[in-house]
Amino acid sequence: MNIGEAARRSGLSAKMIRHYEAEGLLTARRLANGYRDYAEADIAVLRFIRHARALAFPLEDVRRLLALWRDRHRASADVRRIALDHVAALEAKAEAMQAMARSLRHLAAHCHGDARPDCPILDELEKLP
Amino acid sequence: MNIGEAARRSGLSAKMIRHYEAEGLLTARRLANGYRDYAEADIAVLRFIRHARALAFPLEDVRRLLALWRDRHRASADVRRIALDHVAALEAKAEAMQAMARSLRHLAAHCHGDARPDCPILDELEKLP
DNA sequence: CCTTGACCTTCCCATAATGGGAATCCCCAT
DNA sequence: ATGGGGATTCCCATTATGGGAAGGTCAAGG
């Protein structure tokens, strides 16, 4: 199967499939003409990657998750730790963003938002510690 | 004032100050020897940038906010719109991240997390749509 | 006068993940 | 044989930040 069809079947772009290969997440067989050739098992790998990326796992984590996925003797504890570490990172970033959003929303609530120039948002950006 | 002292006074790194200048956020006077020379007003600008960046405004937004800040005839509505658009972006990203975190936490809760290999996290990554 | 150390300058590279695009090659159908 | 659609590789851009090299500058001290 061509990379184009593999892309359609996996939901990834051909560009990204090549990228993941360059990053060592999979290795595609090559035909005599140099074209990559994908089997069903490869599609499963590509879909796995897509799902992991949809959950924002960094490629480094995806690499480890794939290794565990392929390893029948893995310990589920290892998978769980990767996932929970990632959850913690996601939540930390999300909380940081919401704190910024709250702060800005608060400032915006006190801003007239009309033609007048005075603006607590600019005041705050000017004065903060 | 040297870039080193400007860095100390503004809380930015010298590297970033040069970068912001390259990005057109400010223009520093030069001494005869080529060194950048900063006045008090420049420090205020640099601190403004730092505060805006601390709220995760992208440099493009910082550029616009600075322009409004310098414009005494600005309309506070313009500032407010930039801020609220940014708030919306922050909240959207934060919500997306928390949705992923919730989803993963849920999966992790059903994972034994011991030496056994079976793991709903991997199952889900394998099976998702 | 010369050295040393602490600055400063510019330029290149790297990060993470993705996409755009060029130049070139391949295959199949007309 | 020719054209269209795909494939290949390689380079570049994105965002914000930092590392580091090579070289210029300045002030203090021997």
Question: Can you describe this structure in just a few lines?
Answer:
2 copies of one chain form a homodimer. By secondary structure, chain A is mostly helical.
Roughly how much helix do the residues of chain A carry, as a percent range?
A: 55-70%
Task: Order the strands across the largest sheet of chain A as they lie in space.
Answer: 1-2
> Strand fraction band of chain A?
under 5%
- How many structural domains of chain A? 2
CATH class designation of the largest domain in chain A: Mainly Alpha
End-to-end Cα distance of chain A, whole Å, is 59 Å
Mean pLDDT of chain A: 96
Question: Strands, helices and their partners?
Answer:
The structure is a homodimer of 129-residue chains.
Chain A (H helix, E strand, L loop, with lengths): L2 H8 L3 H9 L6 E2 L5 E2 L2 H15 L4 H12 L5 H34 L10 H8 L2
Antiparallel strand pairs in A: 1-2
The first copy, chain A, binds a DNA duplex (30 and 30 nucleotides) through helix 2.
